Structures are given as C-alpha cells and as structure tokens.
Amino acid sequence: MAVLDSNIPQGELAQKWTQHKNKINLVNPANKRNIDVIVVGTGLAGGSAAATLAELGYNVKTFCYQDSPRRAHSIAAQGGINASKNYQGDGDSDYRLFYDTIKGGDYRSREANVHRLAEVSGNIIDQCVAQGVPFAREYGGLLDNRSFGGVLVSRTFYAKGQTGQQLLLGAYSAMNRQINRGKITPFNRHEMVDLVKVDGKARGIIARNLVTGEIERHAAHAVVLASGGYGNVFFLSTNAMGSNVMAAWRAHRRGAYFANPCYTQIHPTCIPVSGDHQSKLTLMSESLRNDGRIWVPKKKEDAEAIRAGKLKPTELKEEDRDYYLERRYPAFGNLVPRDVASRAAKERCDAGYGVNKTGEAVYLDFDAAIMRYGKEKALVSGMKDASDAEVRALGEEVIETKYGNLFEMYEKIVDENPYKTPMMIYPAVHYTMGGVWVDYNLQTTIPGCYAIGEANFSDHGANRLGASALMQGLADGYFVLPYTIGDYLADDIRTGKISTETAEFDEAEKSVRARIEKLMSGAGNHSVDYYHKKLGKIMWNKCGMSRNATDLQSAIDEIAELREDFWKNVSVPGSADSKNQELEKAGRVADFLELGELFARDALERNESCGGHFREEYQTPEGEALRDDENFTFVSAWEYTGKPADAVLHKEELVFENVELKTRSYK
C-alpha cells in the first residue's frame, strides 16, 4: 500500500519553495541526454512541461489524441490568467493571491502548493510576453488587467476573449523549437491506454495509434500525465467532446490514488441547453461579469410572459428587475465566485423566475456598461452634448474592443444580438478540481509518475477561482515540474535505456488487447453515446449543482447497473486494428462509468457542503454552503482495489498555519 506523504518542506510558508529548490537533487546536463520522459497531453500544462524539459536537455516524447497540440482544450479558455504583479496598484500581492485562492477553494486545498503557485505566477507573464503572447495593453503600453470572481483586485491578464488560444500558441512555439532540435518526438493522434510499471516505478505507457489502430509500447524513465479533467463524465459540459479521463484513470488502476473526485466546478456563465440532441455546451467567459449585470424579473408573471414570448427583456423597467447577486452579495456583486453565482442562478430558476423556454436561464445585461463607457468616451472625445444614440454607439465600440469575439460567438449560436438584448446564461459543468493525488513535487503515489495541470487535484480545493486554471497549468509546466522531477531522475543517471521487451510491457499490452476485445464483443443493443448520455443524466440530476444522500446512493446503484449493461450490450462497429472513433469513445466511456461511481461515493462520504460540493443537508439558513471543519478538513484520496465499490479511502489531513478557517462571505 502506498504511503500518503505530501512531502511538504519544513520552514516558513514564503520560504518553502525557495529552500526546497536549493536542497533537491539535480541532474547534470550531460546526464539529461540519457534520460527519457513521456508527457501525456499537450495542452498548456503538458506543452509547457515538454518544452521546458526538452530545453533542459531531457529526451521527451509527447502524446495527444488530437491531430496537433494546437487543438488541446486549453485553447477554449477565454477570459484570462491570474498573476500577482499588482500592475493596477490596487493592493495585490503574492499573499493576497494565495489567500484568495485558499478562500475561493473553501479552505480545502494545501497551503504550501497554493503559495508556490502565487509565487511563480508573475514569472508566467514574463515568460509568455517573451514568447510574443499578445496580452491586452493600456494606452501607455503597459499590460492591462481585469477582475474575476472572488477577488477585490484586478490581477487577470488577458488577450481579448482568446487568452487560452494565445497562451497555447506560445507553449506550442516553444515545443516546436524542441521538435525541430530533435529533443521532442511528438506522437499526435495517439491515446494512452495503460501505464506500465517496472519494479514499482512508472516506466512507460501503452498507446493506441488512432489512425492505424496499432497498439504501441513506449518506455521512459518517468511519465507525466497532463491530460486535463473529467468534466465529460456529465456528457454535457463545456469541455471539448474528446476530453476524457482515460490516462488518469489507467494510472489510478495501476496504483495512483484519485483525490476528491466529487469536486466539480459548475460555471455560471454558459449558453443554456437548447435540446436533447445537444452534444456539448458553450462557455461565455467569466470576464463578461466585469461589465454584465445578472438579473431575472422580480415578478413571476413577468418571467412567465418572457418565457411565452409576450414580453421582451428590454421592455421590463429597471424597478421590475431583480439583480439578485448585487442584492445578496453587495461587496462582490456580480463577481462572486463561480460556485456561489451558479447556486444563486439555480435557486432563482427553481423558484420560477427563469427566462428562456425551459425556465433555466438568467440574463447577463450589458446595457448599463454600454452607456457608462459611451458617456466616458464621449467626454474624452469632446462630445459634451452627445445624444443617447451617439453615447450608445460609442459604448458599443468599447465593449466590442473588450469582448467582441465573445459577443460574435454568442450571436452565431443563439441568433440574438447581445449589444441590443441581454444574453441568456445558465450554469454548466466546466472544470474538475479533483484529480490524481500528487505530493508537493507533483508526483503521484506511483514513483516516477507525475500529474500536472487539471489532471491533478493540488491547487484549487473545492472551487477554482476564474483565470486560475491557466495559471496552474503553466506554473506546473514551466516552473515547478522541471525542478521537482530532477530530484527523482537523479537516481536514474546509470539506469540506461528502458526496454519495452520485458514481462511488464507484455502483461500491459495483453491487458489492453483483452479490454479492446471485450469492448468489441458486446451484444450490440445500444451505441456508446446511449450509455454516455444515460450516465450524464444520472450525474447531472443526482451529483450536479446540489446533492443529497438519497440521490447519491441511488446514483451509485444506477451507475453500477449501467456499467454492467454497457459491457454486455454496447455496440462498437468496425474493427479494432484500424481507425475506429467509436472504439475510442467506448474506452473513454468505460472509464467514465467507473469514475462516475467513485465520484458519487466520494460525494456521499463528504457530509458537508464546500465550494462546488453542495450537500442539501448541510446549508445555512440563507442557503449558503455549511462546512464541517472539525471532521472534513482533509483530502479524500481513493485507492483502486478492483472496482469503485471496493475503493479504499485514505485521508491527507490539511493543516492551516497561515490562514484562519472561517465561513466564506462575499457579502
């Protein structure tokens, strides 16, 4: 049994990372040429890690299921990336970023990891600017910042609504340089289907070539998982449709503990579901909440009239609108954290105030911001007697500069002009704070196997603050893993090449082939999507924005039954030894069917509400999350022992020496 040792360095919080770097083992540059590292996933975390490791001299193999690293889901991140540079002079600091992140995660994350994240955040911006990432700039040429939910400062750097795309292009260019130097060997359109352990250490992977169907063996001295999150266990989410948990789950089945699977983030600013045939949801950036005001009608009859198409939102008077976030949380208003905003929207819609045909939508209105910016621009332009129409036109120009591509995307999907009528939004599954358990060095419970970015659990606790995903992914890839992995690899300088012609690789490949054969041999009564959609409905209805013990137990039972039926009756057409996208999906859904049950078990075990995990039995009289710090201040780390029902729970107690645990308040 693996020992759950977080390996947090001794000493003062602000000095832990510096002292740790000074004391860990290093690998001589000449020896790095003899060491191989596999990186699974080439988004921001994997791409930055691969580029940096190769720059240091290691031989790197990268694997992604996309046709290019540029297609990683990191490209979809819109609003920005956090860093505590205090360019706005509004009181930001490393400590404030650390505190906001700990508080935003509802005091369920590890202090040492979060402080390190804050410390290196400024370096990320410098690195990306040097790569040519076109961050937005103020008139004087300095980098601009905007605010995101859960904070009282402006620390979010952005590139219009394309921040993830621009950052990914920076990481990809760094990767490409190393590919051209021969230090990175890319394996695109390849999927990791198993982890190989030799003498208890991660020594390679089994991958499937998604073009030819071939099963391949790849060896290395260490394996880095950077494969993203598991939000698609809900079927409908803001994730790319190919996003999956396979790499992380294969490692979990080989001995890597899986931590806090029930911590899933519901994003409040998504385009509402339009029908049963929808395959994914679209995110509208949280940055829109800087200027958009969220509201529903005060009167149910007005909401009913809007749903029936008898009343337009622009016809509703100001006094008849309920700006419920501003009413309930006056200190933060529309910029409360995502979990708080999501639950508030659900509460209003459940109470009958929803505004689309399904009753599951609220308004995000930019009218006030358009007029405010228009008046300011008119004055700056010398137009002291500008008409309302002129002011509106000027204000729309400002909004277009800040959010133009997001408004364009919304109009293309919904066929409504958000400059003229409020956007409709509703919460949807977005990010997963849970993931593979890692220690301070980002190493899993399998020696030599590391997990970075969204694939691990380490930095966000029970709720991620907006613009912190990009920060964590790049921090892990550029500035943390390249240091910490050397401490492990220093013992491998005399190991030599790892052979794939061993009994361990034979066993792993045999296991993979047997699994594929089993997937292909189903009775063929139902498609893969049939099972994925059924799982998604169970997860959303019983493990979604709110949970209770009865529903969670029911979900556990239903998922177990669904999984049994899947293996008997799934239909996977085509052949195993050629391109077969249904086989790809089947393998991913098979893992989701195991993860879903563990997710529900984890949620049932945690008898408290915290962050994105909201248990209906544990809430304040005002409907806010009610934590139980006496009994649940720990990380749930699950050990695989054969099936989810038999998983063993290990607890990493969280110790808070630098912040006081108190009830989160954004009022």
From TrEMBL:
Pfam families: FAD_binding_2, Succ_DH_flav_C. The keyword Plastid does not apply. It comes from the Bacteria. Signal peptide: none annotated. The keyword Transport does not apply. Gene3D superfamilies: FAD/NAD(P)-binding domain (3.50.50.60), Fumarate reductase/succinate dehydrogenase flavoprotein-like, C-terminal domain (1.20.58.100), Succinate dehydrogenase/fumarate reductase flavoprotein, catalytic domain (3.90.700.10). Residues 532-666 form the Fumarate reductase/succinate dehydrogenase flavoprotein-like C-terminal domain. Keywords: Flavoprotein, Oxidoreductase. InterPro entries: FAD-dep_OxRdtase_2_FAD-bd (IPR003953), FAD/NAD-bd_sf (IPR036188), Fum_R/Succ_DH_flav-like_C_sf (IPR037099), Fum_Rdtase/Succ_DH_flav-like_C (IPR015939), SdhA/FrdA/AprA (IPR030664), Succ_DH/Fum_Rdt_flav_su (IPR011280), Succ_DH/fumarate_Rdtase_cat_sf (IPR027477). Residues 36-470 form the FAD-dependent oxidoreductase 2 FAD-binding domain. NCBIfam families: PRK07573.1, sdhA_Bsu. This is Fumarate reductase/succinate dehydrogenase flavoprotein subunit. It comes from Gangjinia marincola.
